[in-house]
Design goal:
The chain is α+β, with helices and mostly antiparallel strands. It is 19% helix and 34% strand. It has helices at residues 27-30, 39-44, 46-56, 90-99, 157-160, 176-182, 247-254, 276-283, and strands at residues 2-8, 11-18, 23-26, 65-67, 72-73, 82-86, 114-116, 122-123, 126-130, 138-139, 142-148, 152-153, 164-171, 174-175, 197-205, 213-214, 221-222, 225-230, 233-239, 259-260, 264-267, 294-299, 303-311. The longest helix has 11 residues, at 46-56.
Length: 313
């Protein structure tokens, strides 16, 4: 299923996107209030809610369909419990280090690394505005994020995929002038990234991806093309299957000695060619995002996350 958060006539709810009709079924209304009207509560009893929802979807009258043009799409998970971002595409890491004259760091292969970012700055599709100081070297980062649907701790890799509700497209907005200065202090990114992260348009459940799943004892990977555009020009291309550390491996690392919860958001890290920092170093450019630029991140099955940039007033 493609789950979506939205507002209609200023009322917030969640729904299922119907690709054939380009419309949304209001889950809360369809269930007569028995299913939650927000994604976080839906995730807390994800398995049971999915079973009940699929029964209801077998016979849906037209009154429960809303045209996507009549609603405002929100982030699929507007209020994550936490937000961690990994560093899981090796080609992106290699390119960045190579273009700075550095060898590949051997510790990269020892375990998946991640950092905590700001779970209170999540945005969805559509307009996104930034402060003036964010435009010195404003960048996008093309990622896919997993949404957690089960509580767990010390989760083993071969069980970890069962904790994933599904995937969303993610744009981890970054201000490189700030980030590159603070990274010299060896504590990881903070103010260079904490101001906005866009996700959406859907939370696509794993059952939608069975036919493109690549199974392994180190966790599933998925054959999904990833294409990124700036103002209609293709600038980024990779495939989700090229992720080096699977989400199962990332979850095993994250949950060691620590609880994870329904509603946790975990980013993959940037795919190859998935940001201007990498592209600039490769092509010896100095191009950054500016006001009115439109960034579209397209992933097979997951949809298109489109954002237009504006200056915050």
């Amino acid at each position: 299923m493609k789950l979506v958060s939205f507002s209609y006539n200023k009322v917030c709810s969640i729904g299922v996107f119907d690709s054939s009709t380009k419309s949304i079924v209001d889950i809360h209304k369809l269930s007569k209030g028995k299913l939650p009207n927000n994604m976080l509560d839906y995730l807390k009893d994800f398995k049971k809610n999915n079973i009940n929802l699929k029964i209801l979807l077998k016979d849906v009258s037209s009154e429960f369909y809303l045209k996507s043009s009549d609603i405002v799409i929100s982030p699929p998970l507007p209020n994550p419990v936490s937000f961690r971002d990994a560093y899981a595409f090796r080609r992106h890491v290699e390119a960045g280090r190579r273009n700075r004259g550095l060898d590949m760091i051997p510790e990269y292969d020892h375990f998946p690394v991640f950092y905590f970012s700001n779970h209170n700055s999540i945005t969805g599709p559509g307009a996104v505005s930034f402060e003036k100081e964010h435009f010195k070297k404003l960048d996008f980062e093309f990622e896919i994020a997993a949404v957690i649907s089960k509580h767990g701790k010390n989760i083993k890799c071969d069980e970890a995929d069962d904790y994933i509700a599904g995937f969303v497209i993610m744009n981890d907005w970054s201000e490189r002038d700030i980030q590159l200065k603070e990274m010299k202090l060896n504590l990881g990114p903070a103010k260079g990234k904490d101001f906005a992260t866009s996700i959406g348009p859907f939370l696509v459940t794993l059952d939608e991806l069975d036919d493109v799943k690549i199974d392994s004892n180190l966790g599933a990977k998925y054959d999904l093309n990833m294409n990124g555009y700036i103002n209609g020009k293709l600038v980024s291309n990779d495939n989700f299957k090229n992720i080096t550390w699977s989400f199962a491996q990332i979850i095993e690392r994250i949950s060691h000695g620590t609880d994870i919860f329904p509603g946790d958001l975990i980013g993959s890290g940037t795919c190859a060619t998935g940001c201007l920092l990498e592209l600039n170093l490769t092509h010896n450019n100095n191009e950054w995002l500016k006001v009115n630029d439109e960034i579209k991140l397209e992933v097979d099955r997951l949809g298109v996350l489109s954002n237009r940039i504006s200056l915050k007033k």
